[in-house]
Amino acid sequence: MTVSPARRNQLIIAGLSSLLLMTLWTVGNLPRYMYFALPFVVGSLWIPAVLFEKQCAGSLGWNLFFGAIGVAVVLVVGRAVWLIGRG
Known about the structure:
The protein is mainly alpha-helical. Helix content is 86%, strand content 0%.
């Protein structure tokens, strides 16, 4: 199975990010709502890697969808890190 370099990089980044978030989820002292948010963040990391063909198509709707997912992931992870650093 041949995988393009861009898709391979997305899969590697999604895998490493999921591993790091799972570690944060297990060792972090987070509020209860963050424990419910992190599984959705981990799942949303894999959406662009799975829908790679849609991402390469360049449609405005799909690009807005992937951009919104990226912003949501950054906001939730930033909030989790801020909460851990504060506590």
